[in-house]
């Protein structure tokens, strides 16, 4: 398959890239500071450019995979209106835009795989913006699956990643972690499988 991978230079994106490439897929990588294309999907105009330049490189895409999304972490009393707006733009609107523009740019039976996370269902202190964003992405996936068929859309929703425990483990006390290999396998399931409207929870 010909795959567009967003967030390819992060820890998760690197693992997903390695796994998908190892299965023989042709991949164009996108990142703000690295990858084949250096663009920011938070800007709808740059999403258009991503699709244009990816098509120039490898032709019609079969799948779009996102492993990127930013949200601020602060207690609610310290959050500003702009903090919540930034979280919504950074993780929700950016991924919705990939699907909105992408339905006309990928193959007739192509797929989208978005990223959410455990905080949609198991919140932590300072995580209200992330919980909001993750919940919104998951609701969008379930609704968009109806509209875009026979194209497909799913989301991968991991808990804290084992390989990131030294940096983030203290924020998730008592919550079991999941290995990057397991998260990457969920992306494979979404890209190569036949399901749509699914949220693959990894806890």
Automatic annotation (TrEMBL):
Cross-referenced SUPFAM superfamilies: NAD(P)-binding Rossmann-fold domains (SSF51735)
Principal EC category: oxidoreductase
Keywords: Oxidoreductase
Signal peptide residues on this chain, from the entry's feature table: none
EC number(s) recorded for this UniProt protein: 1.1.1.76
Superkingdom to which the source organism belongs: Bacteria
GO molecular function term, any single one: (S,S)-butanediol dehydrogenase activity
InterPro entries: NAD(P)-bd_dom_sf, SDR_DHRS6-like, SDR_fam
Alphabetical list of Pfam families matching this protein: adh_short_C2
Membrane-spanning parts: none
PANTHER family, sorted: DIHYDROANTICAPSIN 7-DEHYDROGENASE
Family membership: Belongs to the short-chain dehydrogenases/reductases (SDR) family.
Descriptive protein name: L-2,3-butanediol dehydrogenase
Species this chain originates from: Streptomyces rimosus subsp. rimosus
Gene behind this protein: budC1
């Amino acid at each position: 398959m010909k795959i567009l991978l967003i967030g390819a230079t992060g820890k998760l994106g690197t693992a997903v890239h390695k796994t998908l490439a190892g299965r023989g897929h042709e991949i164009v990588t996108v990142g703000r500071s690295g990858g084949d294309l250096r663009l920011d999907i938070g800007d709808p105009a740059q999403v258009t450019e991503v699709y244009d330049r990816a098509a120039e490189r490898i032709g019609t895409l079969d799948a779009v995979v996102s492993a990127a999304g930013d949200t601020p972490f602060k207690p609610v009393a310290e959050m500003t209106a702009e903090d919540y707006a930034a979280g919504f733009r950074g993780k929700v609107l950016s991924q919705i835009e990939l699907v909105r523009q992408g339905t006309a740019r990928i193959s007739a039976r192509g797929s989208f795989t978005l990223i959410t996370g455990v905080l949609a269902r198991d919140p932590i202190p300072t995580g209200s913006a992330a919980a909001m964003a993750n919940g919104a992405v998951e609701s969008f996936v379930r609704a968009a699956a109806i509209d875009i068929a026979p194209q497909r859309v799913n989301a991968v929703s991991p808990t804290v990643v084992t390989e990131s425990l030294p940096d983030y483990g203290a924020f998730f006390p008592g919550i079991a972690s999941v290995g990057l290999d397991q998260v990457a396998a969920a992306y494979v399931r979404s890209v190569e499988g036949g399901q749509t409207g699914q949220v693959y929870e990894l806890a």
